[in-house]
Design goal:
Its EC number is 4.2.99.18. This protein is mainly alpha-helical and 227 residues long. The chain has eleven helices and two strands; from the N terminus they run H-H-H-H-H-H-H-H-H-H-H-E-E.
């Protein structure tokens, strides 16, 4: 079991410093060329790997050009184009509906505020944060995906279980200049080392400050369950 820093703010800064050194080129892994493609890619990425989304959107983005094309696409046709994506029927509905709103209310442009984005079908705060950060260069929160959720709890940065309260706690302890990068660092580390089922604590740059470290700790704080 590692020994975390005395305060969560100190712990968060140490986590950022170490992960930044370990993953100097950390960035978003979804591929897109404009704000609409980014929005669609993030909607599709819910409970689906970025790798799978990138494979699917390569052809999708060639087939549909602009929000009108998605809004006017038959539901069955768009769903078929997404059939290797998890929950593809629902996601096709979300994309069609969101694009209808973008055409009708925003002159075909992806909106640039949290409230407007979260009013779109299929868009929650996590998706909106990604679009704001990478589509509009607006950082007003921290994207809490499954990796951020898991690592934040394992590292003792939060006791909260759900994304929105986790985000609020992280915003209080992660330096504001790192709100965007914190997510990418957690994603890279979560994929490479701190995996959900069998984290490689022996080769982890955070093991000595991680209260979930398997060497001595009996509990995975991400799940509040024994290892």
């Amino acid at each position: 079991m590692g020994t975390p820093h005395e305060t969560r703010s100190e712990q968060a800064e140490a986590v950022v410093d170490r992960l930044e050194e370990a993953y100097p080129d950390s960035t978003i892994s979804l591929r897109y060329s404009d704000r609409l493609e980014l929005l669609i890619a993030v909607i599709l990425s819910a409970q689906c790997t970025d790798e799978r989304v990138n494979q699917e959107t390569e052809q999708l983005f060639e087939t549909y050009d602009g929000p009108e094309a998605y809004a006017n696409a038959p539901q069955a046709e768009l769903a078929e184009a997404l059939n290797s994506i998890t929950y593809y029927n629902n996601k096709a509905k979300y994309i069609r509906s969101a694009c209808e709103t973008i055409v009708e209310e925003y002159d075909g442009e992806v909106p640039d505020t949290m409230d407007e984005l979260t009013d779109l079908s299929g868009v929650g705060r996590k998706t909106a944060n990604v679009v704001l950060q990478h589509g509009h260069d607006v950082v007003e929160g921290i994207v809490v995906d499954t990796h951020v959720q898991r690592l934040s709890r394992r590292l003792g940065l939060t006791d909260e279980e759900y994304p929105e309260p986790i985000e609020q706690e992280l915003m209080e302890i992660v330096p504001e200049g790192y709100w965007q990068q914190f997510t990418h660092l957690c994603i890279d580390h979560g994929r490479a080392t701190c995996t959900a089922r069998n984290p490689d604590c022996a080769d982890c740059v955070l093991a000595d400050i991680c209260p979930s470290e398997k060497g001595d700790s009996e509990v995975d704080l991400a799940a509040d369950e024994p290892w």
